[in-house]
TrEMBL record:
<feature type="region of interest" description="Interaction with tRNA">
    <location>
        <begin position="148"/>
        <end position="150"/>
    </location>
</feature>
<dbReference type="Pfam" id="PF03054">
    <property type="entry name" value="tRNA_Me_trans"/>
</dbReference>
<keyword id="KW-0808">Transferase</keyword>
<dbReference type="GO" id="GO:0005737">
    <property type="term" value="C:cytoplasm"/>
</dbReference>
<protein>
    <recommendedName>
        <fullName>tRNA-specific 2-thiouridylase MnmA</fullName>
        <ecNumber>2.8.1.13</ecNumber>
    </recommendedName>
</protein>
<feature type="binding site">
    <location>
        <begin position="6"/>
        <end position="13"/>
    </location>
    <ligand>
        <name>ATP</name>
    </ligand>
</feature>
<feature type="active site" description="Cysteine persulfide intermediate">
    <location>
        <position position="198"/>
    </location>
</feature>
<feature type="binding site">
    <location>
        <position position="32"/>
    </location>
    <ligand>
        <name>ATP</name>
    </ligand>
</feature>
<dbReference type="GO" id="GO:0002143">
    <property type="term" value="P:tRNA wobble position uridine thiolation"/>
</dbReference>
<dbReference type="InterPro" id="IPR046885">
    <property type="entry name" value="MnmA-like_C"/>
</dbReference>
<comment type="function">
    <text>Catalyzes the 2-thiolation of uridine at the wobble position (U34) of tRNA, leading to the formation of s(2)U34.</text>
</comment>
<dbReference type="GO" id="GO:0000049">
    <property type="term" value="F:tRNA binding"/>
</dbReference>
<dbReference type="Pfam" id="PF20258">
    <property type="entry name" value="tRNA_Me_trans_C"/>
</dbReference>
<feature type="site" description="Interaction with tRNA">
    <location>
        <position position="126"/>
    </location>
</feature>
<feature type="domain" description="tRNA-specific 2-thiouridylase MnmA-like central">
    <location>
        <begin position="213"/>
        <end position="277"/>
    </location>
</feature>
<keyword id="KW-0819">tRNA processing</keyword>
<dbReference type="InterPro" id="IPR023382">
    <property type="entry name" value="MnmA-like_central_sf"/>
</dbReference>
């Protein structure tokens, strides 16, 4: 096949490209320039958006012996990922920009352009496995190395996108990949993994949001209120500094009457009210989801599991789907048999049937049944 290898400048994408070439595919490497100003994004070999990363990807392509190009997708990235991230926080939600990037950039804009140029598939260094199911559809499964499994952030992919994707690292473990990179003479063999959000240079999400949102911020401050008593415990300078489940950084100056720490339970972006309370009040077992995306056949009902964070645990769950307009089943109701804590609107609920990824939905609301009250 004629395949396009998305090369971030990190070790995983380099080895994935090398394996694709070794398998006999006609491989062309590309690096996505996602920053309008690369110096404003994270530096220090973080494997994502910097000039150093572009150079690392180019050197890896030279070693593999494949053509290499840089695609400027900074405008698409800013609109679909960065602006979305700011809009979601301004609305009091907690988005996952990595899922949005996979959905809108790496497996939409890139794949569309690749197909238009005559490529058959896009290969990436994600840790997930693809196989053909008994119904002839392409199934995505968790990676062999559960510590590196990235199926959660790929849960937004559709059947059409999976049919034109290759994930050569799905059956590997990270240590073996680094050793293979060294054997192949790839200089990125010992390059650190990327972490956090690539477009926030110092990892200070709250500070970045405060600076970038400016007048778009929903409020410039408000009350921190105790859930149980309604007492105003303190003030804050903006709700974008808080997420559901947060414990540190509340700066209340006094403990709860029982001496236990308080956690953020709710964020109201219009009034600016941040509600805090005990950890047990974070427990939920009901989730509503919107904008569902399905990897294959859409289930009406499913007894499976859901994952609610990129590196979170699986929760046994009963999933029911419905339609908002009578055409596609884009709404999801999830009953957690294993309650979860600190789940916020805007996060993604990725649905599994065993190791197979069924699909995903954006969490719109959470609730506690009487059994948890």
């Amino acid at each position: 096949m004629r395949v396009l290898a998305a090369m971030s400048g990190g070790v995983d994408s380099a080895v994935a490209a090398a394996r694709a070439a070794e398998a006999g595919h006609d491989v062309t490497g590309i690096h996505l320039a996602l920053s309008r100003n690369p110096k404003s994004y994270r530096t220090g070999a973080r494997g994502c958006c910097t000039i150093e990363d572009s150079n690392d990807a180019r050197r890896a392509a030279d070693v593999i012996g494949i053509p290499f190009y840089v695609w400027d997708m900074s405008d698409e990235f800013h609109e679909a990922v960065v602006e979305d991230f700011m809009d979601e926080y301004a609305a009091g939600r907690t988005p996952n920009p990595c899922l949005r990037c996979n959905e809108k950039i790496k497996f939409a804009a890139v794949l569309d352009r690749a197909m238009a140029l005559g490529f058959d598939a896009v290969v990436t260094g994600h840790y997930a496995q693809l196989e053909t199911g008994p119904d002839g559809l392409i199934e995505m499964h968790r990676a062999v190395d559960m510590a590196k499994d990235q199926s959660y952030v790929l849960g937004v992919l559709t059947q059409e996108q999976l049919a034109h994707s290759l994930f050569p690292l799905g059956d590997s473990v990270k240590g073996d990949v680094r050793e293979e990179a060294e054997r192949r003479g790839l200089m990125v063999a010992n390059k650190p993994d990327s972490h956090d959000i690539c477009f926030i240079a110092d990892g200070d999400n709250a500070g970045w949001l405060k600076e970038k949102l400016g007048d778009r911020a929903p409020n410039q401050g408000g009350d921190i209120v105790d859930q149980g008593t309604g007492e105003v415990l303190g003030q804050h300078e903006g709700t974008t500094a808080y997420t559901i489940g947060q414990r540190k950084g509340l700066r209340l100056g006094r403990p709860a009457p029982d001496g236990k720490p308080r956690f953020v339970l709710d964020i109201e972006p219009v009034s600016g009210t941040v509600t805090v309370g005990p950890r047990e009040a974070l427990r939920i077992d009901r989730i509503s989801g919107v904008r569902a995306r399905w990897c294959g056949t859409v289930p009406e009902r499913l007894d499976g599991t859901v994952q609610l964070r990129a590196h979170g645990a699986e929760h046994r769950a009963r999933i029911t789907t419905s339609s908002s307009d009578g055409t596609v089943r884009d709404l999801v109701q999830i009953e957690l048999l294993d309650p979860a804590e600190g789940i916020a609107p805007g996060q993604a609920a990725v649905i599994y049937d065993g190791s197979r990824v069924v699909g995903s939905a954006t969490i719109s609301a959470t609730a506690r049944s009487e059994a948890l009250v």
